[in-house]
Amino acid sequence: MSGHRAAASRARGPVGATGSALALVWLLAPVVPLLLWAAADRWQFPSLLPQDWGLTGWRASIDQGVLAAGARSTGLGVAVAAVATPAGALAGWALARTGLRENRAVSLALLAPIALPPFAVVTGLSTVVLRTGIPPAVSVLLVLTAAALPYTTYVMRSAYVGYDAGYEDAALSLGASRRDVLTRVHLPLVAPALTAAAFLAFLVAWSDYVVTLLLGAGSLVSLPLLVGALASASGNDSTVAAASVAAVVPPVVLLVVSGAIARRTGRR
Amino acid sequence: MTPRLQVGRALLVAPALLPVVVVVGTGLTATALQSTGLMPLVGRAAPTLDAFRGAAADQDLVRSAVLSLALAGVSTVLAVVVGFLLAVVVLDGRTGGRLVRAAAVATIPVPHVVGAASIGLLLSDSGLVARLTGTGAGGMPQLVAGPWWVATVAEYAWKESAFVAVVVLASLARQHGELAEVATNLGARPFHRLRRVTLPLAAPSLVAAGGIAFAYALGSYEVPWLLGRTAPEPLPVLAYRLLTDLDLTTRPQAAAVGMVTIAVAVVVLAGTAALLRTTPRSS
């Protein structure tokens, strides 16, 4: 093991501490003014730090409806994940373990939502929705589910490519019922992948802007739409920052939690 | 394969395939019909290319298309280069590398509209960069809503570089360590190893992630809307203005802009797929 580590340390690249520092500055720089503004009551130019600290931005963003928008976005994310994850798991199984693996039509169809500009597809859909009278929330949900399915299918396909069905056979031969095999062997084995797929599906819905903008018809103000509306008006930087932080914290927390779940179940 | 098995696997794929086919199929068809006068909001359907002509003549469609291509192209190149460098820093394996990996992963769930708001607070003429460099009003080049679209490109490059890094790291997870070790034991210098081991191993995922990043930047509305200037407009911004115009006759023009964007996306992604086929695979 120590020999391995010695070789690994010899295999170190050309990157010094400067490289790591530059990489961190690149990734974190946009977050710094966001966090400072979210905690600033007054921050006049050209001062480097806020003159007055406080929660004015948070109070203002709550007045602007950040909580209701957050609840709508959560509902969208959970609903999309709830539909797209099991559907992606079934398709992922079929694509990984049957002759469908080489089926190019299926792969191309599942690539379409990622490859095609969503606004262009939704431009035509908005007219269809208007004519058929489908409620805005339903149409947004349907389109975002279609947008999430390529991700859930791809993640589950990768998981099923490496899936060892031998465990299921062993459980069956030991007298387990089909149902037991599903709930006590199959699902625990793919739990990390299911968690990752659900997280990605949630993220697709949570982060969406243009689909909700075009199909929500003004009645569905998600958190990103609120951030966009606040940011396009000038002079309320602390409110924009507070709403932005509110739009980032929930998915980052979910990321950490789902990562921890995946690691725990993966180790078992 | 027996017919029963075929039905079985079709049933398994259906819940994922059907919503995608229905949504994308309906959307594409409706956008195409609207752009060619076959699905008018009012009046009789008649095939015409007036919407395309109108968009080209009155709305500067060609300039918008060139602008969108340039924005997506430049930010994709930046994202691929920076993303690869970020991955190299992580692979280097120091404590700093672990922090960089965590920061890159944490950047993925940031919605683009939040990224745009953040880049605005960073690069505007009273933003953090202006404060740090001590440039007063007029001294700072106009990065937000300026002539060179710097803030827009910076937002895409920032978000997508993290995406590229995460994709590359995931694809390199297995082989890179061993191969890098072998190369070192055979006497390869760090830069040599970077060029002959890391880059070829990462190439397929760099191309694929670059294609996805390009498609995103080409179709994104909120980033250039918040950080760009008002004219010329990138394709999605132009389409949204035409779609929501009180004058209903511009709706077909919005669909025409959509069709042009789809054509650009398909051509570029077909190119990406061709490039991917010629990129030698490591495994």
Quick recap of the structure?
The complex is a heterodimer of chains A (about 270) and B (about 280). By secondary structure, chain A is mainly α. Chain A contains 13 helices and two strands; from the N terminus they run H-H-H-E-E-H-H-H-H-H-H-H-H-H-H.
Question: What would your notes on this structure say?
Answer:
The complex is a heterodimer of chains A (268) and B (283). With 268 residues, chain A is mainly α. Chain A contains 13 helices and two strands. Chain A has a two-stranded antiparallel ribbon with strand order 1-2. Chain A is globular, with a radius of gyration of 23 Å. Chain B has 283 residues and is an all-alpha fold. Chain B has twelve helices and no strands. Chain B has helices spanning 3-35, 50-58, 61-91, 95-107, 112-123, 128-133, 150-172, 176-185, 190-219, 222-227, 235-244, 251-278. In chain B, helix 11 (235-244) packs antiparallel against helix 12 (251-278). The longest helix of chain B is centred in the N-terminal third of the chain and has 33 residues, at 3-35. Helix content of chain B is 75%, strand content 0%. Chains A and B meet through helix 1, helix 2, helix 3, helix 5 and helix 6 of A and helix 1, helix 3, helix 4, helix 5 and helix 6 of B.
Number of strands of chain B: 0
Structural class of chain A: mainly alpha
What pattern of helices and strands is seen along the backbone of chain B? HHHHHHHHHHHH
The side-by-side strand order for the widest beta sheet of chain A comes to 1-2
Radius of gyration of chain B, taken over Cα atoms and rounded to an integer in Å? 23 Å
Largest sheet of chain B: none
Distance between the termini of chain B: 29 Å
Question: Greatest contact pair?
Answer: A-B, 94 and 106 residues
Tally of extended strands of chain A? Answer: 2
Task: Report the end-to-end length of chain A measured between terminal Cα atoms.
Answer: 24 Å
Contiguous runs where pLDDT drops below 50 for at least 5 residues of chain B: none
Number of helices of chain B: 12
Overall body shape of chain B:
flat
Mean pLDDT of chain A: 90
Give the proportion of residues in helices of chain B: over 70%
